[in-house]
Specification:
37% helix, 13 helices, 651 residues, 5-stranded antiparallel beta sheet, single chain, alpha+beta, 18% strand
Length: 651
């Protein structure tokens, strides 16, 4: 901060004045900078003050903003976890109370009034669970889906319908994966649980099949390959290929001195041969570092295998865009007849007459009016049906065709195990005689023992193969062409086609021939045949905590001891589910707390570094301020002295 010296040489007056004014201006600017640092407390207020420090400060400020945002995210997530824990706590308390009522109601000596009083208690616990399921926090559902702003559980007559979703907000609270903000009703209360898991669907290849979908979703990575007819290898660039059709088009464009290739699509692979069909050598190998030929199972690097080269195992994964005409290994399926959805006492029909893809099937089922949600399960490759109405049974059957069977959705089939009937309790056999009898219209009685049978199909075979049922008047058993259940058909006669229960056991009832408490059922004559149609023998429960409580209320009121014992196990499972989820919420809350502390510590550390970069040292600033003031005073004095100089001062 030295004063600009007065030149000892002769200079012009304007130059001398300019140099003095520059000195004065410089002192004033420097002094103002010191005042700015004192008032703001910062040494760097603009990039030009210290470009290097300013660059580092910008990076530090970004880090501070990120750390502060992570801390805020963690705080919000903690709040949601706290609200979720409170809701699940109320569920636990309700289920514990319901468990106690179940044990008390299992006594067979209770009066009707006592059972009704206990049923009212179950209803109260149910209402508490529903209220917990409808809990809102910050205008969002805690268990019914994050984007839901209204109650997701509604009471419809005697049932409860779930109208929410599985949506869960996710946010960053640390450097790792996104954290879920709370839990949903499916994982905590079993809402919208999968009631019907369709069997895996299989689709065949076509030209539009994407390479990424091949091999059940493992895919085939596009890349260059090398092809030879026994001479030199030809490099074939398949890097841009996206579909099977692209691969075929490029391969068939290869020319070996007039010979070309022909590629055919098989249900599960490709067939590659020379177009003229003549013998020869066909070698295919991957370029260095590539894997397309291996992925397509057409690798034949030495040409040892004679053409045609046939690959297998390329069946693509099922997607919503999969065409029905390519299902069943490429043979296609016919679903034009549609399917029936039985929901409690109500029947709905899914119109599939215009369906061309799996997506069309899903839309038709979801628009059928039934309280279900159809989805494509990416893991199994089948259609999953989720129940939205608690307190009812579900089943999917035919509507005069084979659509439900073709889609793997028919709930009651010949493969159904006898041990699965009656909600898993199975058939009780008669040790002292036949389980049931069929009286043919011509008066012949057929007795059946099921001791060696394992499935419904075995029962149907027993009826078909009965020694006394091999004539032209025989009874023919099949699955009902509409809905579910077993249909018995026979030529009409003087007697009615009849099914009778044995003295002991419940096989006839569980197979759907008889209603609860019945010992005999008769068919009808329709035109040239006598028909007896049984009811669905494998209804599916909606599942979930609310469904359990609804069924428990009815069982308590009816005094159904076996049902109470079964539901008690379900109630224990529901309690374990809610408790495990609540425990997981607690663990996640602790993790979020740690991440929040870490973010806050990081913010403090970054702010300390930022302070070092841009904050002013007040002691240094004050010292420099005093020096600048002295310099300014000296400059002003020098200017004043120089203004009084005359020519005599230089003589």
């Amino acid at each position: 901060m030295a004063l600009l010296p007065i030149s000892s040489t002769r200079v012009s007056e304007p130059l001398k004045n300019q140099r003095l004014l520059n000195q004065l201006n410089s002192d004033q600017i420097a002094l103002q900078r010191q005042f700015d640092q004192l008032s703001s407390g910062q040494r760097v207020t603009r990039v030009s003050d210290d470009p290097a420090a300013a660059g580092r400060a910008i990076i530090l400020q970004r880090g501070i903003s990120r750390a502060d945002q992570l801390s805020r995210n963690a705080g919000v997530t903690q709040s949601f976890y706290a609200a979720t824990d409170d809701a699940l706590g109320r569920v636990d308390e309700s289920l514990i109370e319901a468990r106690g009522v179940t044990v008390e109601a299992a006594q067979s000596v209770l009066s009707s009034d006592e059972r009704n009083a206990l049923a009212v208690t179950i209803r109260r616990t149910l209402e508490s669970v529903v209220a917990a399921g409808n809990t809102l926090f910050r205008d969002h559902q805690i268990l019914g889906g994050y984007l839901q702003t209204a109650g997701s559980l509604t009471v419809d007559e005697a049932d409860i319908v779930f109208g929410g979703s599985d949506a869960i907000a996710r946010t960053k609270v640390g450097g790792g994966d996104l954290f879920a903000v709370g839990v949903n009703g499916t994982e905590s209360l079993g809402l919208a649980s999968t009631v019907i898991q369709g069997s895996p669907l299989q689709t065949g290849l076509d030209e539009k099949t994407r390479l990424s979908d091949l091999r059940g979703g493992q895919g085939a990575r596009p890349g260059p390959i090398r092809v030879s007819d026994g001479g030199n290898f030809v490099d074939v660039d398949l890097t841009s290929a996206a579909t099977v059709g692209d691969v075929i088009e490029i391969l068939e464009s290869i020319n070996f001195d007039g010979r070309s290739l022909a590629v055919d699509i098989l249900p599960d692979g490709l067939r590659i041969d020379f177009a003229d069909g003549a013998p020869g050598t066909l070698a295919i190998e991957d370029a260095v570092g590539e894997s397309l030929a291996r992925d397509l199972s057409i690798l034949n690097p030495l040409g040892v295998a004679a053409p045609p080269l046939v690959s297998t195992g390329l069946a693509p994964r099922i997607t919503a865009d999969a065409r029905l005409s390519r299902l069943n290994g490429g043979a296609g399926i016919n679903v034009a007849a549609g399917l029936q959805i039985q929901q409690g006492s109500r029947t709905f029909t899914a119109d599939l007459s215009q369906a061309e893809t799996i997506a069309d099937v899903l839309i038709a089922i979801n628009r059928s009016g039934a309280d279900v949600r159809a989805e494509l399960d990416a893991k199994t490759g089948g259609i999953a049906i989720r129940s939205l109405r608690s307190g009812v049974d579900y089943s999917i059957g035919e509507n005069g065709g084979l659509a439900a069977t073709a889609l793997g959705l028919r709930t009651a089939s010949e493969a159904t195990k006898l041990s699965e009937l009656d909600q898993g309790r199975g058939v009780v056999l008669n040790e002292f005689g036949p389980e049931f009898s069929i009286l043919r219209p011509d008066g012949v009685q057929l007795d059946f023992e099921l001791s060696g049978g394992e499935s419904v199909g075995d029962v149907l075979n027993l009826i078909r193969d009965h020694p006394s049922n091999q004539d032209t008047l025989k009874v023919i058993p099949n699955l009902n062409p509409v809905g579910n259940g077993i249909e018995l058909v026979a030529p009409p006669g003087p007697a009615a086609l009849t099914v009778r229960a044995g003295n002991v056991g419940n096989a006839a009832e569980l197979l759907g021939f008889l209603g609860k408490g019945q010992t005999e059922a008769t068919g009808i004559v329709s035109g040239p045949i006598a028909i007896l149609r049984g009811r669905d023998y494998l209804p599916k429960e909606a599942g979930g905590t609310i469904d359990t409580l609804l069924r428990l209320e009815a069982a308590v009121r009816d005094g159904n001891i076996p049902e109470l014992e079964r539901l008690q196990k379900r109630l224990d499972s529901d309690f374990d589910l809610a408790t495990r989820v609540r425990g997981r919420v607690g663990v996640l809350s602790q993790n979020v707390e740690q991440l929040k502390d870490s973010a806050e510590d990081q913010s403090v550390a970054l702010k300390a570094e930022l302070s070092t970069e841009i904050d002013a040292d007040l002691a240094t600033v004050i010292s420099e301020l005093q020096q600048r003031q002295t310099s300014l005073e000296a400059s002003l004095k020098l200017i004043g002295e120089s203004a009084r100089l005359t020519l005599l001062d230089f003589l």
